[in-house]
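Hey L., structure's done. Input below.
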Amino acid sequence: MARKRLHEYLPTFSRLLGRYPRHPAISSHPAISSADCDWRIRPWWLYQGPEVPRHALLGFLATIHTERLEPAPLIAAFAQEHRGWYRRRLRKLAQRLHAGTPLVDALEQTSGVLGHHELLRLRIAAQNGTFAAAVKEISPLKVTSAQTTRLRFGQAVGYLVIMLVVTSLILTFLIFSVNPMLKELAEETESPQAIGALIQVPWFRYLPLIFAILAGAIVFSIFLRNRFGWTLFRGTPLQCITRHARHAEIDHLLAKTLDAGRPLQGTIASLARYHDDPHIRRKLLLARNEIELGVPLWESLQQTKLIPANLAMTLSRTDSPAVQSWILEQYSQRESRSIERRRRFATSFLQPLFVVLIGAVVCWVVSSYFRFLTQFTQEAL
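Output:
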């Protein structure tokens, strides 16, 4: 029966299951044949970024949850569709599931398989009994304004990294190859003013190294974020620029909890335990403690600055969960759109700003060499 259901609903992955025969969950599953498959859908040379395999995994989890299939062997076979670090993460996830770890706990223990945003929403959805609906909500691969903004930001950062590397190489060539020859030429022709026209700033020699270190730090931070979901500025004041978006996300999760008919106290306790931002986690812990001491829920969230005062006043005036859910959802969507507009506006200025900064360095270097040539020509004549 399981074999028939697997071939009916997942014909592609039922053929792929034979590619990982050493896994004990696969070898013991009745729906798996011993035939091996020598092809894969995803080509080796194509890198689609971390979001594409994560959304594919979410869609796969939605099918597994809807059809009540065993996740361990299917995720182990799904790992064969990927390569490198993500394949290893998926295999580790399959091993944890085979060992009996609950799905959400296994996802959280396997860093990099899903982002913090998806994990938090799945955790709350599993608690509310709306796991399948939550997975379907966040899994569609459609181009949104947020993805467009992230693409523009990535293009601007990529441009900065390339220009830093190229500028570093050019400055290194000028400092260690061109400058000594120009100085030697000026000394032979006894042109002291021409030598002074060259770049004589003491730290100029270290400018290529500074550019190279900056480019390496940017690439390393992108690597950490894509592979493990880490950021270099997590828990620091520099992360406050994204906290308004996280507050809107919390409002959305509270609205979904009210829609599911679950108590908000349990969701706040789960958020206080599993949220990845330490600053927001402390606020949620404080709000949970105040609720346990008898403070009204909306008032405690307002005192911890998780929701504004006008929203807390509006929510406290109604006892209908449907109305409260609608208010929270509308406020969350409005804040998300406002934050996205500000991000899109700021992102549009990033690449021009990088162009101006790199251009300023280039103009400074070029002007110094023009001064040298001018002084050298005048003294030579």
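The radius of gyration is 28 Å. The longest helix spans residues 145-188.

-- N.
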